[in-house]
Amino acid sequence: MSKQYVNVIVDIVHTAVDRVFQYEVPEELLGKLSLGMKIRIPFGRGNTVRDGYIIGFTEKPDYDPEKIKQVQTVEEDAMPIEGQLIRLAAWMKEHYGSTMIQALKTVLPMKKKMKPVQKKYLVRTVSQEACGELLAVYRKKKQKARVRFLEALMEDEVLPYEVVTQRLRVSPASFRPFLEQGICRLDTEESYRNPVRGLLKKEQTFLLNEEQRAAVSGMTASWDGKKETCLLHGITGSGKTEVYMELIRHVIKNGRQAIVLIPEIALTYQTVMRFYRQFGERVSIVNSRLSAGEKSDQFERARTGRIDIMIGPRSALFTPFPNLGLIIIDEEHETAYKSETVPKYHAIETAIERCRMADAMVVLGSATPSASSYYKAQNGEYLLFQMRSRAKEESVLPSVEIVDLREELKAGNRTIFSRRLKELLKETLERKEQALLFLNRRGYAGFISCRSCGEAVKCPHCDVSLTQHWDGKLKCHYCGYETEIPKFCPSCGSRYIAGFGTGTQKVEAMVSSMFPEARILRMDTDTTKGKGGHDAVLAAFADGKADILVGTQMIVKGHDFPNVTLVGILAADLSLHSGGYEAGERTFQLLTQAAGRAGRDKLPGQVVIQSYAPSHYSVEAAASQDYESFYWHEILYRRLLHYPPVYRMMSLLFTSKEETAAERMAGKVKEMAGEFEGPLKAGTEEAEGQRHDAVEIIGPAKAAVSRINDSYRYVLYAKCEEEQPLLALKEKIEQMEWDRNVLYQFDME
DNA sequence: AGCACGCCGACT
DNA sequence: GTCGGCGTGCTC
Asked: Where do the Helicase ATP-binding domain residues begin and end (predicted)?
């Protein structure tokens, strides 16, 4: 038998050694090593014994076998948590296509910052005079490094370790004698920066209604037993958070910890405070505003058992709790749970895998579950819990009406405000209540187009229109290209060329001309620039400093405005005709959320949905607040067209500076994939009639944005009812001989 | 990070 | 010549 080797990452906190090293497995350890295991290895010239983690196995090393050393021993009583996270990284690499290093960096992002947690200081233990005498001695000896060090030490009693080694360039070898002579000592300070220090826990009990109690007892039973993934479908205001908290209480009582994932945009002060009030100092929070050091402090607190609950966005999924018992994913339908960078993992699937490893449970919650999750609940893969009434009994559901914009046009109304919406706005203002105007549109910045030929001004490096910024320049959102607004149309030479302004700006201008006395706030990227801009606008509106708030998606996510009684959705179908097969789902979710903003307290709410396609099921179902109806339409469409969740879909993106190379490589992959189109396990009884494992290849075709930064982009899709054949295909592609001018990326849905 | 190697100035 | 500190580079 040939020799066995392991790929190892060495547990040294430094970028210079932040890579894979290979070691030989000695005979006595053959078969005893596994992924993620902590081992002892000789490292460096002096063969100092260090810790390392196994991240892979191989029989043929990529390094001169002569120089490869042997694994020494297995670290028996290592904390299993790192091993578990490393195994999770391996799973992510398999499923989402990335290198092991990329996956590890996603899962163990705090590795580099572990040291700053234990900040080290060099502290002078003798008087300033004594230090000065010593300094004179070393000056005479002309030992420059030691002189530099003593000078600094005389000046300041305490010196941070990094300052000494990096800024002063005094190596440990140079100051070690001083430590031994007792001139100074090495102190470590564990200063945990708790961002919520000082909040006192106020034990709060809440009365659960019948639906909430049913959900809690069902989930608790699942947790005590098989720990099946649960989906909590509860309408806005049904009190999902109380259910989560009851379940968390149960989990903590059993000595386990919980992670609560929340989309970054909904991670508001209010939400977080509710958890603090309930669980006090045992709660921690991470978000993107936290510095890397603070974040790793919080992860360290989790690892050492000082907290029980971690709240945060997608990345909080990798909190190193030693005894994880529960992962809650709130607003599980949010796109923010899908990573945009390699590995392009999905938080739900990854959470389920992590919980499988840790014998923990996943709870998904949403007012508008993703079609994918609801499908799995329907198939019995998840347990489903429904909450159909609002927790506060006095608050009532808003009344919703649809206005057909085509009728408005026929009646001679060319504005984007229907007569009905105008009328209701007027009434709302008269009652001194507030209104939200929601523009359901992705690209908020306007583009410039020619009135004569209709051509939009495009980026010379990408296949997209340039957008106008507030500074008057034209910019490309993909590559950053910037230019002045041209005087003549680049394609036909006409001088009738103009911008349309941003959608929200236009709406704001129109409202103020209709109601000159109304106070209007606009919320888009322009008005929320700078830190806290976001919250500042929302707070101002909540305080009643304005009557009308105009904005995009941002205004409908997780904010309560008790005085809002009117919500106007200006063009419901704007999101219906873009964004691939999920457009219908996105539209339904946005409309439902927007409608849910109306009349959340005792005041009755009114919602107006304006649409050019009022009979589309996404619009109709949102208007009647009927999730089921939406779902059955949507799943029918997905089944017919072989889209997820009925089928698994793998998309491949080929990018190259040479258009032909990208297209050719995509074609080559399609050709190779042809062999997967037949049944893989031919002859099995199951294959009779239905080929669950047949792979369907679509493309290659130009990507939606066919060129970015002068790179051409082609896509190829592979669909299959089973996941396994797709993973097999992915493996085959990874082993293909590749044109070095072409890059590729996987995406699994 | 931490260790050894090799350069370079100081001193028997 | 040789001793020893200091900067540089490498670590499977």
From this structure: 221-387
